[in-house]
Amino acid sequence: MSASAPPVSTGAAPLPASSARLRPLYFARFGFAIVWAAVLIATASLGAPLLSVLLVLYPLVDAGSVLWQLRKDDTASGSRVPEAINIVVSVLVAIALGWTSAVSVAAALAVWGAWAIVSGATQLITAVLRRRSGGQVALIVSGGISVFAGTAFLIQGLQGATTIVGVGGYAILGGIFFLIAAIRLSILLRKGRA
């Protein structure tokens, strides 16, 4: 997989070669989000330490996925800055969630909300900058929804929420948007091979 691999043509504008590598990542992120949300929803009432592990795991997987995406991207787009910010913020949030989830659900929800705002904004910016790769409209919408959902989580946390199950629904919705992006990329790549 050299950086000089030819772009995949879709009949209109050619897709960058990195588009084919984004598709399995998007499918994997969908699968992880669904499984993670199911486990969170089923076990949230048990509290720490399982809740702490789950809450720390999600942003770490997000950071790892974005890092993998950065390393596999053969385009010289300006999207690297928001992605790098997302990685750093996700790692810091994982640490903060490990601590706050042992303190209170409300504190953890507030941290999650702040992270959803920042990661949603960076996802939105990255998807706009990466729109030539195909399948990015779903991720643009997802990033925008993440900002709004994050604001709601932050407010709930600051108001002393006693449950964090809502982040499971947030993860499911985010996973569905990754599935839509993966399917859209699959269609574009199939057309490019025709």
Would you give an account of this structure?
76% of the residues lie in helices and 0% in strands. The protein has helices at residues 18-43, 50-72, 80-103, 105-129, 137-158, 166-193. The model is unreliable at 1-11 (pLDDT under 50). It has one domain. The longest helix is centred in the C-terminal third of the chain and has 28 residues, at 166-193. It contains six helices and no strands. It has 194 residues and is mainly α.
Q: What is the count of DSSP helices, taking H or I runs of 4+ residues?
A: 6
Largest sheet, described in full? none
Stretches where pLDDT falls below 50 for ≥5 residues? 1-11
Number of domains: 1
> Which structural class best describes the helix and strand composition?
mainly alpha
pLDDT averaged residue by residue: 85
Global morphology: elongated
Short description:
The protein is mostly helical. It is built from six helices and no strands. It has one domain (18-193).
Kindly list the characteristics that best describe this protein:
elongated; mainly alpha; single chain; about 190 residues
